[in-house]
Amino acid sequence: MDIFRLIQDIKRHLKLSFDEVDRWFDKDKETLNFQPSNGGWTIQQILEHIYLTNFYLLILIEKGSKKAIRNYQNLDLNIEIKNYSFDQKKFEKVGEYGAFEWIRPEHMEPKGELNLNEIRSLISQQYDQCLDYLDLMKNGEGLLCKTTMTVNELGKINVYEYIYFLSLHAQRHVTQMKNNELETIKNLKK
């Protein structure tokens, strides 16, 4: 496995996902606050949810990266890299809106306590945090710690995969926001 390529691929995916999310902050108020007919979240609520989910995932990523760096002293990184293969197919469904039942914890549900500018700034900081962790573990150290991910039965995943998961989660909600926007446009034409 070319760990350096994996890290670059994750950085590229993060950039695309976060750039797409960021564009939604520039939408007009009507689009941002449109309540879809299915009773789902508004785009503003989705953006807050992305921030909240990132917040909690980054706690796990931080713990994992610290443990991975500590494990570097006791484990053979070269053997880990040699034996590692990234199963991208296992993760693909995470980025697809509606691909499976996803029951999120209550603490990841939007409460409307932050304004759009705050959410945008926080999500931008979260992007930088992800890049910092990837730079910190630039030689493959992220393989040296695995944590259980229950979503879609992913099982034990390493720190790089957690960061990729975070990026896929944002991508999933970009699709949801696009669906909201389409419904908004249809309603305006009526």
Q: What's the SSE blueprint?
A:
Layout: H1 3-23, H2 29-32, H3 43-71, H4 77-83, H5 88-92, H6 116-136, E1 146-149, E2 155-158, H7 159-189
Antiparallel strand pairs: 1-2
Helix content: 55-70%
- What's the architecture, going by CATH? Up-down Bundle
Total helical segments: 7
Structural class: mainly alpha
Count up the domains. 1
State the gist of this model.
By secondary structure, the protein is mostly helical. Helices cover 62% and strands 4% of the residues. The chain has helices at 3-23, 29-32, 43-71, 77-83, 88-92, 116-136, 159-189; strands at residues 146-149, 155-158.
Account of the protein in words:
The chain contains 7 helices and 2 strands, in the order H-H-H-H-H-H-E-E-H. The chain is mostly helical. It has one domain: Up-down Bundle (Four Helix Bundle (Hemerythrin (Met), subunit A)). A two-stranded antiparallel ribbon has the order 1-2. Strand 1 (146-149) and strand 2 (155-158) form a beta hairpin. Helix 1 packs parallel to helix 7 (159-189) and helix 3 packs antiparallel against helix 7 (159-189). The radius of gyration is 18 Å and the shape is elongated. InterPro entries: DinB-like, DinB/YfiT-like.
List the keywords.
single chain, 190 residues, mainly alpha, Four Helix Bundle (Hemerythrin (Met), subunit A), 62% helix, 4% strand, DinB-like domain-containing protein, DinB/YfiT-like, DinB-like
